[in-house]
Every structure is written in C-alpha cells, then in structure tokens.
Amino acid sequence: MEFISVSVDGNIATVVLNRGKVNALTEELVDELKNWFEELSSDQKVKAVILTGTGKFFSFGFDIPHFMGHSKDQFTRYLTKFTDFYTDLFVFTKPVIAGLNGHTIAGGCMIATACDYRIMVTGKARISLNEITFGSSVFAGSVEMLKACVGLRNAESILCSGAMYSAEQALDLGLIQQIASEQDLLQHAERIAEDFASRDNRAFQSIKRLLRRPIAEEMKKREKASILEFVDIWYSRETREQIEKIKIRG
User: Fold this and answer.
1) What is the distance between the alpha carbons of residues 112 and 128, in angstroms, rounded to a whole number?
2) Is 17 exposed, middle or buried (CB count within 10 Å of its CB: 0-12, 13-18, 19+)?
3) Does domain 4-197 match CATH 1.10.340.30?
4) For residue range 173-227, what is the model confidence (pLDDT) as tens digits?
5) Is 86 exposed, middle or buried (0-12, 13-18, 19+ CB in 10 A)?
C-alpha cells in the first residue's frame, strides 16, 4: 500500500504523507520515504523538495498500537531504519522545506528537524518532542538535530518538559522559521522552495556539507547505543503501561 504521493512542478517536488488521519509512522512508511528521497536525489530536474502531510497532522509520530506486538528485535530493526532515514534527510543533497500542515509530534518532529526549513500553520496545531510524558526516551541523532535548530538550552527545555508548542511559541524557540495560515501554507512553502532552487546547487551542497556533516558523523557514532537504550526503556513495565494508554485519534 502506498502512503506517500509525490508530484513535481517545474523544479520543485512535493512529497505528501497520507497515511490515515494522523500520518503515523510505520516501517512501511519509512521505507517508502527512503525510496522516494533516493529517487528525488538522482532526479536532476528537481532542485528543492517540500515535505508535508494531509489533514490536521503532519505526523503523530510512531504508530504506537501498530508496534505493540513487535518483538524487541523487530522494533530495533524499525528504529534503525527510522534513524538512518532522518540522518540521510539531514544531509540530503537538495534543500528540503517542511510544510507542517498540522500537529507535528515525537517522531514527526524528528523528521521536521532534519529538514532545512520549517514553516508551520497557526491555530490549534502543536509541535512537540513529548516522549518524556509517556516514559520514553529519544535518540542521539534527534538530540543533535534539535540542538542544531534551537541550541542546547532550548533543546533541554523542549525534551525535558515534553511541552506542546503552538506555531508562535515554536517560532520564538527557533524550532521553526516561519508561520502561515492553513490556506497559505503551501504557497509560502513553494515560494521558499523556489528561492532555494534558484541558488547554485553545488554551493548549497558544499555549505550544507560543511554545516551538517560533522553533526551527522557525531549522530552516527552514538545512534546504535541510543537505540538500544530506547528499546530497553520502551519495553520496561513502567513505560509499557503508559504507552498502552495512548490512543491515536484523528
């Protein structure tokens, strides 16, 4: 089953998450994302990419009920794919603009922080790395990407509080760079993508590599150990009891 639609208009590609009402992440969805971004990387016509979702959610994060029956080995395999994907996205050779059309939670927020530019709708939408609120940890890579966005002090506040931030609050923190109305989101995202696409791609790649490659290398050094620690916490009795209470609602 396909959970992603991709369209190309001129030199701008738009990748749309479309998995149910909340775009919850599964192994199949992550595989699809990986394959599409590999294809877009090699498409010389495409100069910039917009990543967005459908409905009121950019992404809820992991599809928790889906993973409840997974063994530790199966879940570890998924987490390895997920973290590999956001690391590849973080150093993707073309500009990626996240058009955050709605709630951007946990794993969804991690994907957003891997992008080059984030624009979010105003109103009821919230963005959060709320793992601590249900007894879960995060990953080494997600911490490094967050620090690159907001700095150490704000990263500590975001992760240790698990707070849900409005677009305006996220803008103040540096978690996003721009806000827009629901009606104007894609228009603004396209304008930003066109601006990026108009720049020399070789220069962009060089600058992005200089900025992000050292961070990505640090992410990779500690990612495996952080995944194993994440799994140990996720399968603990205390966290399991909290996770089982989570219901996904559109």
Assistant:
1) 11
2) buried
3) no
4) 999 999 999 999 999 999 999 999 999 999 999 999 999 999 999 999 999 999 9
5) buried
